[in-house]
Amino acid sequence: MLASVPVVRTLVDTPLGAMTAVASDEALLLLEFDTRRALSELKQVERDFGTIESGSNSVLDLVKQQLGDYFAGRLANFKVPAFQHGSGFEEKVWDALKHIPAGQTRSYGDIADLIGQPDKSREVGRANGANKISIIVPCHRVIGSDGSLVGYGGGLWRKKWLLDHERQYAWAAF
After folding, report:
1. In whole angstroms, what is the distance from residue 16 CA to residue 61 CA?
2. For the chain, which end, N or C, has fewer CB atoms within 10 Å of the first or last residue's CB respectively?
3. For residue 52, is it within any domain?
């Protein structure tokens, strides 16, 4: 876990609605659509890191710039330093998510196989749902084994939009 550091919060406007972003000067700690879920996750970040002030820093500036490029179709791979603390299993899942190329999807079973625990697809689903850094740690790229869109905290309509958006420019090298 990061040492006790100043943590700031800002809202980021996107075509899918506002997102709450929280970061220290070192790393992004939370990026969620501004919903009830984001509020409960904010409380968890505050428990872990102390009071969250409104404001900005270089990490949040980078998040805003790269999300803008992502939504404009100019960026597929984020270079934002991010930090999430979870169980060893959750961290393996979150790392695996970052390796799903834009424009592609994987099933929960695919991720379980990838991390060497093929019998843990349900646990992968829970870890995927516990991801606190939406879009940048692309939990939206995980789908049901039958190809169905399932389980997205930001709403399935956003998941569909994000996948459709990424398919439009996935062929280009970013």
Report:
1. 19
2. N
3. yes
Select which of 139, 142, 162, 163 is catalytic: 139
Q: Would residue 5 show up in a list of annotated catalytic residues for this protein?
A: no
In sequence order, what are the beta bridge partners of 11? 20
Do the strands 28-33 and 19-23 form a parallel or antiparallel pair, or are they unpaired? Answer: antiparallel
pTM metric for this prediction: 0.90
Q: Quote the CA–CA distance of 66 and 63 in Å, as a whole number.
A: 5
pLDDT band at 40, cuts 50/70/90?
Answer: confident
Q: What percent of the chain has pLDDT over 70?
A: 93
140-169: average pLDDT: 92
Burial class (CB in 10 A: 0-12, 13-18, 19+), 130: middle
Compute the mean pLDDT over every residue in the chain, rounded to the nearest whole number.
Answer: 91
Residue 80 lies in a domain: no
54-70 residue pLDDT tens: 999 999 999 999 999 99
Of 71, 99, 115, the one marking the end of a domain is 71
Q: What distance in Å separates the CA atoms of residue 91 and residue 46, rounded to the nearest whole number?
A: 20
Q: Give the closest residue to 133 by CA, choosing from 166, 85, 165.
A: 85
Domain that includes residue 101, residue range:
88-131+138-169
